[in-house]
Design a protein that fits this description.
CATH superfamily of the largest domain: ATPase, nucleotide binding domain
CATH architecture of the largest domain: 2-Layer Sandwich
Number of helices: 17
Largest sheet: 7 strands, mixed
Shape: globular
Length: 514
């Protein structure tokens, strides 16, 4: 049933659309979670290196997640006073002139564009991209993918009217409004210094002269830039009928999901490190100045005049899910608790194993792969799980150490993602990074950040700093000196082995193609 506006609209809805799972949560005005819903979206690989999903299925999953969240909270959609959406960045969501998908969405995990990257690395694009946009492109970057389609399937671009990101597609389905925000656009299309669209970026990638529907160039097919907390539209009749939200409910532009997580964690001031340990190892800090380096992405933050330095790789807590699936451990709370207990029982003494958590990506380049080293016949499953958990944390440290070279980091960091649910794992972060680790209340910090941006957009808060005051810390982990020494030695070996394996990784990748 479609909700209609009336009565007290005193709640917030936040949506976090990841690459495989969409989460929706209902929050009160202070950001306390009242109900959550999730829905998975199928990922397809029709060819090697292609990672895609159907745009309509992404919308259907979002509708299901919103419905589940309203049901879990026990509220009608009319109670929602504002909606915020964050989503995975990079990849491509292409619409035609009628607002329909041109083709399946390409996710950020797609690696088809390796030939484009090879050519760009060999020429002037690489260094110029870093200086102009604040980062170098990678296989899943919109710039790389657009250049790949221009080279291999130009008909796709000929039919494209709008180049969107995931959250922009979902907001369009809710409101009919086309827009994006600077945090998303800064992945490829904006100047790192002006934080606005940069035509020279399109020229750099060979995209500036591409034609399109009605003779439009690619610059004309980029959506309007609106602030992340600006009201970009209102839930229309179709959006209301699908979701149960009230027609007329304000929907803000939203942001990249990592920005949303920083907002949800209250890590919005320069120097406060926020860590996301999920599919990706995300290590990020807000900066008041432009600082570029190939080891991180200098993206526009949700607040104008600030940047989010993100040092990332696809090498974090998803390793434990791989382990659990490969070795038949149930994906239940009891299953995870068993693995955590076994790792805790094996914590005494020095690290026995080196584990590189590079199943899907690494801070050491595209050819690095995952491996256990030092395994002996007397090692138990607990030893292996301990090694895996430590390896993930040490991979985060590679990124954090890079940020430490150029940013004045606070002596405390905030952790979210799957690893934050484990006290043992969270303590490893404190010990390995020599930082006090704080874990905030709530299970979906990205959705919380989306909701707080919505609250900011409708005037329920006056600033990001004010929204940060709503964060409630439920657990703190202080570094243990004895464990610090153990993990410092483990980190030395982790890095040394990675450096030694570099030539072998390259050779193996060339020989096996994997």
């Amino acid at each position: 049933m479609t909700a209609t506006r009336g009565g007290a609209a005193d709640l917030l809805l936040g949506v976090d659309a990841g690459q495989t799972v969409t989460k929706a949560c209902v929050f009160d005005r202070e950001g306390r979670e009242l109900g959550a819903g999730t829905a998975r979206v199928r990922v397809h690989s029709p060819r090697p290196n292609w990672v895609e999903r159907d745009l309509d299925e992404v919308w259907t999953a979002t509708v299901a997640a919103i419905g589940a969240a309203l049901t879990a909270a026990g509220v009608n959609g009319a109670r929602v006073g504002a909606v915020g959406i964050v989503g995975h960045n990079d990849g491509l969501y292409l619409l035609d002139g009628a607002g329909r998908p041109v083709r399946p969405a390409v996710t950020a995990m797609d690696t088809r564009a390796h030939d484009v990257l090879r050519d760009w690395r060999a020429g002037p694009v690489w260094a110029r991209a870093l200086e102009l946009t604040g980062q170098v492109p990678y296989a899943g970057s919109p710039s790389t993918l657009l250049a790949w389609f221009a080279r291999h399937d130009p008909d796709v671009l000929d039919r494209t009217r709008w180049v969107l990101f995931c959250k922009d597609w979902l907001r369009y389905r809710l409101t009919g409004a086309i827009a994006t925000d600077p945090s998303e656009a800064s992945c490829a299309f904006t100047s790192v210094r002006t934080q606005d669209y940069a035509p020279e970026a399109l020229d750099l990638y060979g995209l500036g002269e591409l034609g399109g529907p009605g003779g439009l160039g690619l610059a004309d097919r980029l959506p309007p830039l609106l602030p992340s907390a600006a009201v970009a539209g209102e839930v229309n009749a179709a959006g209301a009928a699908a979701t149960g939200l009230a027609a007329g409910t304000p929907v803000v532009t939203g942001a990249h999901d990592v920005d949303g997580t920083a907002v949800g964690l209250g890590a919005v001031e320069p120097g406060l490190l926020s860590l996301v340990a999920g599919t990706f190892s995300i290590n990020q800090v807000v900066s008041a100045d432009v600082v570029v380096d190939e080891r991180w992405q200098a993206r526009t933050f949700v607040e104008p005049g600030r940047w989010l330095a993100m040092s990332t790789s696809a090498s974090s807590a998803t390793n434990l899910d791989w382990w659990r699936t490969a070795f038949g451990v149930p994906g239940t709370d009891d299953g995870y608790a068993t693995l955590e207990r076994e790792a805790a029982d094996a914590l005494a003494g020095p690290s026995q194993l080196v584990y590189h958590p590079f199943l899907y990506g690494s801070p050491y380049g595209e050819t690095a792969s995952a491996a256990f080293l030092g395994v002996r016949g007397w090692h138990t499953r607990g030893d292996l799980v301990r090694g895996l958990l430590e390896g993930v944390v040490l991979g985060h440290r590679v990124h954090v150490d890079a940020l430490r070279e150029r940013f004045a980091l606070a002596d405390v960091a905030r952790l979210s993602g799957g690893a934050a649910r484990s006290a043992v794992w969270s303590q490893m972060f404190a010990d390995a990074l020599d930082l006090e680790i704080e874990v905030a209340a709530g299970t979906e910090l990205g959705a919380r950040g989306a909701a707080l941006l919505a609250a900011l957009g409708v005037g329920w808060y006056s600033s990001l700093a004010e929204t940060a005051q709503t964060v409630r810390i439920v657990r703190r982990h202080v570094p243990d000196p004895a464990r610090q020494a153990v993990l410092a030695d483990a980190y030395r070996r982790f890095v040394a082995v990675a450096q030694a394996l570099g030539p072998w990784w390259d050779d193996h990748h060339a020989a096996s193609g994997s």
